[in-house]
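Lecture 7 notes. Example A: sequence first, then its structure tokens.
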Amino acid sequence: MPASVLRRPSAVAPVVMSLAALALVLGHVAMYGIVHEADEGTPAHVFQLLMAGQVPVIGYFVLRYLPEAPRRAVWVVILQLAAAAAAFGALFWMESQ
């Protein structure tokens, strides 16, 4: 087992995907402001794909590395979930305005 499971692509990919979704939300608000549209549009669909695409990657990471290095793997999963919560939090903030 390597010193850090955080160096594995299955550990980094969900965090990067969450940060991309967060950047998408913040970029959309910066460019267009907070606009409530009848149709969701492309940014909303990309956000949904980024967030839903993380689920199987996180599942693989948990199944693969949690039995081998539980303490390290739990911290990586917490990081992954915190990044996802930040993206959803930004979306919730934008929708509540």
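Example B, a different protein, same format:
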Amino acid sequence: MGLDDRKAAKREALFGGRGAVRVWDLLGARRAAPFTAALWCELDPGGSVGRHVQEQFPELVIGIEGRGEARVDDRICALGEGDAVHLPLGSVLAITNLSSEVPLRYLIVKADG
């Protein structure tokens, strides 16, 4: 089953950001400990996901396509093809799509503990 066969959750102005982000849950009900989520995300051109705290699970954000940046606490990290950003519990994340023309595509992998 590909992404086209699954329904994306569309979130507008997520955490006070701009534009829309579409999120596909790749695991669905199938969880594979220690992983709690694998999310394929697509952020609108010029869009952003506002600052939010990683409260439940540490995460990896992995750039797939496009040109963006992830702000982790006070550190700015590139988020493009092949970039990986680690988010420990308690860290603050914001994501920005630096392109005004193409979506930013990335994966979020969450793990327990």
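Note on Example B: Residues 7-111 form a domain with the Jelly Rolls fold (CATH 2.60.120.10). The chain has one domain: 7-111.
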